[in-house]
């Protein structure tokens, strides 16, 4: 049985620091035979939750609005065994597009995520990483997902694309996160 992990990247930068952190986790996952996919949500035109309640009332399992890529992302999250939410820190929080994903995925597909494996990753230049990290982490709690730890909280530091390559501890943390995620996924799917 093949196990898969999808990583949603909240950065609008295609090869930015968040993407580099995701790839470090992916290397460890792929080494354990787990298939991986990155979806960049940052830079996409998406709107926030309209609070119409239609997804819930009709038990749709997806969002009622079809004018942006959100339902494609919701489908990818539901199909995966593991979900990584990764975001740069913007004004001490996650990016706007990541927040839209959290709200609309969480509201429309909450029950479908139960007991999947989840992990937060954040990147920052200097401040606010912990708050952004907690914004991602709380999503996994309320959706009844299971969260593996690592040797540090999953964060990397850098400003310009590529800067995070100099953060050696972040790379170790991502490598360990990938290994722990793979271990947990294999236990669940044994
Ligand atoms: C709008 C905006 C707000 C930012 N706010 C913060 C912040 O609050 N704290 C911080 O340390 N870095 C902040 N940064 C810097 C980014 O977190 C940093 O450049 C990060 O490496 C970007 O990741 P990326 O390369 O994946 O896009 C901000 C950057 C932008 C564009």
Task: Please provide a written account of the structure.
The model has no long low-confidence stretch (mean pLDDT 97). The radius of gyration is 16 Å and the shape is globular. Helix 3 crosses helix 4 (96-109). The chain is built from six helices and five strands; from the N terminus they run E-H-E-H-H-E-H-E-H-E-H. The chain has a five-stranded parallel sheet with strand order 2-1-3-4-5, with helices on both faces. It has a single domain (4-188), classed as Flavodoxin domain (Rossmann fold). It has helices at 17-31, 54-57, 70-79, 96-109, 129-142, 168-188, and strands at 4-9, 35-40, 82-88, 117-124, 155-157. The chain has 190 residues and is α/β, with parallel strands linked by helices. The longest helix has 21 residues, at 168-188. The protein binds flavin mononucleotide (FMN). The site of flavin mononucleotide (FMN) has 19 residues, from helix 1 and strand 4.
Short description:
The chain is an alpha/beta fold and 190 residues long. It has helices at residues 17-31, 54-57, 70-79, 96-109, 129-142, 168-188; strands at residues 4-9, 35-40, 82-88, 117-124, 155-157. It has a five-stranded parallel β-sheet with strand order 2-1-3-4-5, sandwiched between helices.
Question: Biggest β-sheet, characterized?
Answer: 5 strands, parallel
Strand-pairing-aware structural class? alpha/beta
CA-based shape? globular
CATH superfamily: Flavodoxin domain
**Cα radius of gyration in angstroms:** 16 Å
Helix content: 40-55%
Strand order of the largest sheet: 2-1-3-4-5
What are the distinct ligands in this entry? Answer: flavin mononucleotide
CATH topology tier name: Rossmann fold
* Count of the domains: 1
Strand content: 15-25%
Q: Tell how many strands the DSSP assignment holds.
A: 5
Mean pLDDT: 97
How far apart the termini lie comes to: 9 Å
What is the name of the CATH architecture? 3-Layer(aba) Sandwich
CATH level 1 class label: Alpha Beta
Reading the helices and strands in chain order gives EHEHHEHEHEH
Q: Are there runs of 5+ residues with pLDDT below 50, and where? A: none
Helical region count?
Answer: 6
